[in-house]
Amino acid sequence: MSVLMQWLWVLLLAMMPISELRGAIPLALGAYHLDPWLALPLIIAANFLPVPFILLFLRPVEDFLRQWPFWDRLMSRIFEHTRHKTQKRIERWESLALVLFVAVPLPVTGAWTGSLAAYLFGLDFKKSLVYIFLGVCIAGVIVTTAVTAGVNWLVKPP
C-alpha cells in the first residue's frame, strides 16, 4: 500500500466516530510506522475537523431525522446514553468535565461524544470548540505515548 493511501486511511479513521484518534494513532504508528511527529498533529486535526460541523448542524439534522420512527428511537437512545454518562459532571464542572471526557481515551468518549454532550447541554459554541480541542490534544498525547511505549516494548522487550 502506498504511503499516500496509508495516510488517507489514518486520517479517515481519525475523523470517524468510535475509532477517532484512539484507532488512528495505533494504525499510524504501530501498523504503518509513520513518523509520530507528523502523524500526531495531522491526526488531531482530522479528529477535530467534524466537531464544528456537529455543533453547528446537529439541530437541523436531528429535526429532520426525527420525522421517522426508526431514527427518532435511535437518536433518543444515543442522546439518553450520552446524557446519562455526562450529565452530573457537565452540570457541575462544565468546561473541565468536557475536556476530561474527551481526553480520557476510553471507548465511547472523544470528540464526537463530547460534541454531542455540548449540544445536549446547550454549552457555548466557542467554548465547546476550545474545550473539545484541548481534550483531543490531551487524548492524542496519551494514546501516542502508550502506543510508542508499546511498540518500543515489542521491538525491544525488557
Describe it.
With 158 residues, the chain is an all-alpha fold. The protein has one domain (3-155). 82% of the residues lie in helices and 0% in strands. The chain has eight helices and no strands. The model has no long low-confidence stretch (mean pLDDT 91).
**Total number of beta strands:** 0
Helices and strands, in order, run as HHHHHHHH
Helix percent band: over 70%
Distance between the termini: 32 Å
Radius of gyration: 17 Å
The low-confidence parts are none
Shape: globular
- SS strand fraction: under 5%
Sheet with most strands: none
Q: Given the structure, what is the number of helices?
A: 8
Query: Could you say how many structural domains there are in total?
Result: 1
Which secondary-structure class do the elements indicate?
mainly alpha
What number is the mean pLDDT?
Answer: 91
List keywords for this structure.
about 160 residues, mainly alpha, about 80% helix, globular
Helices and strands in order, then pairings?
Blueprint: H1 3-15, H2 20-31, H3 36-48, H4 50-65, H5 69-93, H6 95-103, H7 111-120, H8 125-155
Helix pairs in contact: 1-2, 1-3, 2-3, 2-8, 3-8, 4-7, 5-6, 5-7, 6-7, 6-8, 7-8
